[in-house]
Specification:
- The chain is α+β, with helices and mostly antiparallel strands.
- It contains 8 helices and 10 strands.
- The strands form 3 sheets. It has a 5-stranded antiparallel β-sheet with strand order 4-3-2-1-5.
- α1 runs antiparallel to α2 and α7 crosses α8.
- The termini are far apart.
Length: 328
């Protein structure tokens, strides 16, 4: 058996080794924690710098393109380019943050490359919106500030980005239209031309003088200050309806004055026809009672006075004679 002195020496040696291991482990953990703290601090600094750089790059892009003659008065291209630059700066900063935290970005890129087909199929709608946004930017069927009709929604274009076209209608309702649907549908740019023609359809009676009606309508349109003299206003018969002759009044004005000028010319046309004594027919409702053949009457313009009759075969009413009063 070992002596007590030998056992005590072995115990002291083992305790020393354990203490040395604990000290080394604590030192290693302290070093790892310190390195992680330093990397985390640097990552936060890179993130803050990325945000600042993105704002600066966006501002510089806007100012730089704003000095160019081709983009100076085109906010559509400016907003689109600024957004692309901002996204690129954020992407570079995000990769730098991952690298500082010890993430192998090359492996992430390899995985994304291997899964590109699946990602493309899953995001085909989003990618089509991006491609459509680029095509809209290149072809420019409309610009920011234009009045457009997209998918039956009429509004003013406020923004064009990578995914959506934002418009605001007459009630100031924000409408987000995906670029893919916008590019694949009809686009009506209502303010794409400097001038615009209005067509007002007004019915007049068959017994009226159509030449006088035409002169009254043309005179009403020409008297408005916003109606252009060239091309001059025109009026003519365009259809024969059941109870009226349809006349169309055509006049030109500037695109920005269209809606108010159209309303004013409509009112002026109505007042001009009234002043000329020309009737504008409108539907009349006539009450015709049914019953026996000999009880049928022609309803006068001021209505028919009916009184109850005892014969049930006449639907409970009979035409009254002059001087008759309605019976209870």
């Amino acid at each position: 058996m070992p002596s007590p002195e030998t056992a005590l020496a072995a115990l002291v040696s083992t305790s020393g080794q354990a203490a040395a291991v604990d000290t080394a482990m604590i030192a290693k953990l302290t070093q790892v924690a310190g390195d992680f703290a330093v990397n985390m601090a640097l990552a936060l600094v890179i993130l803050v710098a990325t945000v600042i750089a993105a704002r600066w790059a966006a501002r510089a892009t806007r100012n730089g393109l704003g000095r160019m003659r081709g983009f100076r008065h085109d906010p559509t291209v400016l907003s689109f380019a600024v957004q692309v630059v901002r996204v690129l700066v954020f992407l570079i900063g995000f990769i730098a943050v991952l690298q500082r935290l010890g993430v192998q970005t090359t492996s992430i890129i390899a995985v994304l490359g291997a899964a590109s087909l699946a990602v493309g199929l899953a995001l085909q709608g989003t990618l089509s919106n991006v491609a459509a946004g680029v095509m809209l930017l290149i072809l420019r069927p409309y610009r920011v500030g234009d009045l457009v009709n997209i998918g039956g929604n009429v509004g003013k274009v406020q923004r064009l980005d990578l995914f959506f076209t934002q418009i605001a209608d007459a009630n100031n309702v924000k409408i987000m239209a995906p670029n893919g649907k916008v590019f694949g549908d009809f686009i009506l740019n209502l303010s794409g031309q400097r001038t615009r023609r209005m067509e007002l359809k007004i019915g007049v009676g068959y017994g009226e003088n159509l030449n006088d009606a035409k002169e009254a309508l043309v005179r009403a349109a020409a008297g408005h200050e916003k109606v252009l003299a060239d091309p001059e206003p025109w009026a003519g018969v365009t259809n024969l309806l059941d109870s009226s002759v349809e006349m169309t009044l055509a006049a030109w004005c500037k695109s920005e004055d269209y809606w108010q000028t159209r309303a004013d010319v409509f009112q002026a046309a109505k007042e001009a026809l009234d002043a000329a004594g020309i009737e504008i027919p409108f539907p009349h409702q006539v009450a015709v009672p049914y019953g026996d053949e000999d009880d049928r009457i022609i309803a006068p313009n001021d209505g028919v006075r009916l009184r109850r009759r005892a014969n049930p075969s006449s639907a409970g009413f009979e035409s009254g004679r002059d001087g008759d009063q309605n019976e209870a």
